[in-house]
Design brief:
This protein is mostly helical. Helix content is 82%, strand content 1%. It has a domain of 250 residues. It contains 22 helices and two strands. The chain has a two-stranded antiparallel sheet with strand order 1-2. A hairpin with a 2-residue loop joins strand 1 and strand 2.
Length: 545
């Protein structure tokens, strides 16, 4: 990569590019998973997600801490002009990545039936098998991402992530539709959808290899003597293992939770495997929607750590508390209305996006999970604040506590025939609600100067409550007006088109009401918007001081 291009890709510019790339990836991901939920039956959707839980854990094991460790070592060597050290670190890391990738990929490839049995979902066999090659490709891909990030070059990583996500949409979704349309086994269709993930990892790795070679062609020769390979590997592992352990907490908990949920539905409730898969699929579809608000917290959390860290570095604790409070208030302003909206319109939204599922059950769970989405968003920004204050170990402890609570709630509630799968929604709310609460308490007690929680939460909560009432009233009113009217209703009930119209109307009214209330109550300030992309320009348009 030419020097001129490198100069443009500064730290802050690169961080903005990476954040923009992540937003694009999340949007593509939503365009992939939501239509996929309509193509696949509830049971097949559960097969798809069961394989993903295994895949996610193995990804953490094989790539969890190594990219960060590699990035740090490359950055340090690059800062001192030791290019030979950079190259040796990269070669050793690449070998380590490929070995781990080969091992984890082999586990999924040679033992898909055993893994499916372990997860209490034998039908997930095809999805597990289809994901196996992706684990191998993602390891060298992660190594090259770490290499470029060590040079503060974020554009290659952002583009590779977009390629990876786009392939899921362009290959996985059509393949699943073709398999379903031909009347083949629905479990094979779930596997077909996942093939797009493997193709995406492969093409993203090819792209990164091309970028690596292009970059290396512009690097001048160096005369430094690199460290011994054993010392480099030891340092890599010392940096990577703690990060991997911290990252694996949630992946392990999700895997145990998925296995436990299907197992308790079959063993304690007495359902067949197929019936348990169907219920699990309904829950997974609600989870897909509940995850949406959290996806857009990435730019905010990415801005918090450097901003707070910079204030702490010069012992300006007042500024650190101000930035932390602004981050929490911005999160509350975005997450609380989103969660309330999902809760109020749970059933209509499920009917709109997944009309072939159990709408009543899915809608009920989405209403509970809407509040869980608020907790997750708060947890993410709290974790960023605590990490900036070098309290990352504390966040791992609170996450472990939350995961234990989640597993316990699922174990007992899901086994109750009157509750069954609904217990999963309660456990998710209990887990993340507790973690967010503990994090907020720790921030209040342990930070030199802490945010004012009344200033953070009072206006977003009140404004969201009013918005929620307006959304509920508008959906109810519009559904009564459109019931039995032309294509919107029949025999006093709404058609799917009528429901879609009512959802759009209600959301539109909710946005207008909430935006008006935010401006009227001065719930947002210029400082709040400064953490968001183009925030200063938005503040000028809104004439905020």
């Amino acid at each position: 990569m030419p020097d001129s291009a490198r100069k443009k890709d500064t730290f802050f510019g690169g961080a903005a590019i990476l954040a923009a790339g992540i937003i694009i990836v999340k949007i593509i991901g939503a365009l992939y998973k939501i239509p996929l939920g309509s193509i696949l039956s509830d049971a097949a959707y559960a097969d798809f997600n069961t394989a993903y839980y295994i895949y996610s854990l193995l990804i953490v094991i094989s790539t969890g801490g190594l990219p960060v460790a590699l990035s740090k070592m490359v950055s340090e060597a690059n800062a001192t002009g030791r290019d030979n050290q950079v190259q040796k670190v990269f070669r050793i890391a690449m070998v380590a990545f490929c070995v781990l990738g080969a091992i984890t990929s082999a586990v999924m490839f040679f033992f898909p039936r055993q893994l499916a049995d372990f997860m209490n979902n034998t039908h997930s066999y095809y999805s597990i098998l289809a994901l196996a090659p992706a684990l191998f490709f993602i390891c060298p891909l992660s190594a090259m991402r770490g290499y470029f990030q060590g040079h503060s070059l974020m554009t290659p990583t952002a583009v590779s992530e977009i390629i990876e996500a786009a392939c899921k949409l362009l290959f996985g979704l059509p393949l699943a539709w073709i398999i379903v349309s031909r009347g083949m086994d629905e479990s094979i269709a779930a596997g077909g959808a996942i093939v797009g993930v493997t193709i995406g990892c492969f093409l993203a790795a090819v792209f990164m290899l091309f970028m690596y070679r292009a970059y290396r062609s512009h690097v001048s020769a160096s005369s430094d003597t690199p460290d011994a390979g054993r010392d480099i590997l030891r340092t890599l592992m010392a940096l990577a293992i703690p990060i991997t352990l911290g990252s694996s907490v949630m992946a392990v908990a999700n895997l145990i939770d998925a296995k436990l949920l299907l197992g308790r539905l079959q063993d304690a409730v007495g359902l067949t495997e197929d019936a348990a898969r169907e219920l699990r699929g309904v829950y997974d579809k609600a989870v897909t929607l509940y995850n949406l608000p959290t996806q857009f917290m990435v730019p905010l959390t990415a801005s918090v750590i450097p901003a707070v860290s910079a204030a702490i570095a010069v012992k300006n604790y007042k500024q650190g508390a101000l930035v932390s409070e602004t981050a929490l208030r911005t999160t509350a302003l975005l997450a609380i209305p989103a969660g309330v909206g999902l809760s109020v319109l749970g059933q209509p939204i499920i009917r709109l996006l997944f009309p072939n599922t159990d709408v009543a059950l899915g809608g009920w769970m989405l209403s509970v999970l809407g509040f869980a989405a608020i907790a997750v968003c708060l947890m993410l920004v709290c974790n960023s604040i605590l990490q900036a204050y070098k309290l990352a170990n504390v966040t791992m402890i609170t996450t472990i506590i939350g995961c234990v609570v989640k597993v316990l709630i699922n174990y007992f509630l899901v086994a109750n025939p009157a509750i069954n799968i609904r217990g999963a929604a309660f456990s998710t709310l209990g887990c993340f609600g507790l973690v967010a609460l503990l994090d907020l308490i720790i921030i209040k007690l342990m930070l030199p100067q802490s945010p004012g929680y009344l200033r953070v939460f009072i206006k977003p909560v009140l404004n969201s409550a009013v918005m929620g009432l307006a959304v509920w009233a508008m959906y109810g009113l519009s559904s009564k007006l459109l019931a039995g009217v032309g294509p919107f209703g029949s025999e006093g009930a709404l058609t799917n088109l009528g429901n879609a119209a009512c959802v759009v109307i209600a959301i539109g009214v909710g946005i207008i009401v909430y935006f008006a209330l935010v401006l009227l109550t001065r719930a947002i300030s210029k400082d709040d918007l400064s953490l968001m992309p183009k925030g200063d320009k938005i503040a000028k348009i809104l004439r905020l001081n």
